[in-house]
Amino acid sequence: MRVLRLTVAGAALIAMAGSAIATNSVLAPRVFNDIPGATLLGTKGGSTVTWSETNVSQAAGSANRDDWLISSDGVTRDQFGLTDYWTLSTDLTLTPGSPTTHIEGGLRLSGLDDAQFTVKAFFDDAVFAAGGPFPFYLASPPAYTPGSTVSLQLEYLNIAGANGFLFTYNGVTSPFLPAVNGEGGVPPGSSIGGYFQIANDPNNPTNGGSAAFTNIRFNGGLLDATPGAIPEPSTLALLGAGLTGVLGLRRRR
To answer: What CA–CA distance (Å, rounded) separates 110 from 108?
Structure first.
């Protein structure tokens, strides 16, 4: 086992040599906007991103989702492809506003293939990876206690000619798991980052919750994002146009 982990680590270091070294992030609010009347607050600064939504409640609608994405300039998302290898990590705290609030968050890949390394703070409180090129992986231990802080790390690398992933939850790392999509890895034009999602609750007018992503690291280096809040409407419109067809086209139900 130790030899395998050394081999994986060495492969990751070599793979990351060809990746972009981004140091910033960009906020992408309301990738899903099923409850537009909800109140949203989002900020970034240094190696931290926070999201908070309240009043996520209306007669119909599934959920609202808010993303942050790795960026070199803090304005536009960076794009990654099949042979751009990387490591992304963060500490994550999910705080539901009530015992019935359904929230989740984690690290994600957005693009032609939409995939999540998810922490779920409701029902079975599971931690798992699924979607797009991600093979299904249930972290061990799988449980999450709402309001607690956990560490997540997602690595994309190539071992023995195969592209695949390592998923780390609170210091426990999966085996190397090859990509399962037709492209055999991360499709060109993909973006990577984190997400926060809160489900609609028609029976709870004050339904809400928050997510704090701290100590965000990309390829081993802490982000140093310029402090900022959710973009102004004109900036947000441009960002949305740039993400159309790329971000979150397949919803997690």
So the answer is: 6
pLDDT attached to residue 30: 96
Identity of the residue numbered 221:
G
Question: CA-CA distance, 230 to 4, in Å (whole number)?
Answer: 43
Instruction: Return d(Cα 238, Cα 149) in angstroms, integer.
Output: 33
Give the span between the Cα atoms of 13 and 145, in whole angstroms. 33
Cα separation values, 178 from 132, 184, 189, Å = 12, 8, 20
Mean pLDDT of the 137-144 span: 87
pLDDT surpasses 50 at 148: yes
Written as six digits, the tokens of 1 are: 């086992």
d(CA 172, CA 211): 22
CA atoms of 153 and 118, how far apart (whole Å): 11
| Backbone φ/ψ region at 183: left (φ over 0), alpha (ψ -120 to 50), beta | alpha
Q: How far apart are CA 252 and CA 192, in angstroms?
A: 17
Distance CA 88, CA 139 (A): 17
Q: What is the pLDDT of residue 99?
A: 87
